[in-house]
Amino acid sequence: VQLQACGGGLVQAGGSLILSCAASETIITRSIMAWYRQAPGKQRELVARINSGGSTNYADSVKGRFTISMSNSKNTVYLQMNSLKPEDTAIYYCNARQGVLRPTDYWGQGTLVTVSS
After folding, report:
1. Which of 79, 78, 76 is CA-nearest to residue 66?
2. How far is CA 30 from CA 51, 54, 107, in A?
3. How many CA atoms lie within 13 A of 39 on its CB side?
């Protein structure tokens, strides 16, 4: 399984970006898909996740600004990021988790988002 994330870049505060995560096979319907981020000097944190039924969860810091969605036909998960803040600056990672008792995690390579003030 390979996850290819893209869409990062440099944006001014208040701007928008959309990240994409393309899976090499049809895993998104069998996984909980998520976006994590890691800022310099900080631990990786969950940003948003979506299950195969379309239910979503968000970190409090991004609620109302970010939206996670997926396209089953394209095996792709998206993260629409609006009203970006400098504190959103981080490397964003796509994640696919399968299983409950002994979950298996797959990670994308990360894409850098930089928000300037």
Report:
1. 79
2. 8, 12, 15
3. 11
Q: Looking at residue 29, what is its pLDDT?
A: 82
Q: Which residues contact 25 (CB under 8 A, 6 or more apart)?
A: 1, 75
Q: Can you give the three-state secondary structure of the chain, one letter per residue?
A: CCEEEECCEEEECCCCEEEEEEECCCCHHHCEEEEEEECCCCCCEEEEEECCCCCEEECCCCCCCEEEEEECCCCEEEEEECCCCHHHCEEEEEEEEECCCCCEEEECCCEEEEEEC
- Token look-up 């440099």 returns 10
Residue 41 CA to residue 4 CA, distance in Å, equals 24
Mean pLDDT, each 10-residue run in order, the chain (117 residues): 92 98 85 96 97 94 97 92 98 94 93 97
For residue 38, which amino acid is it? Q
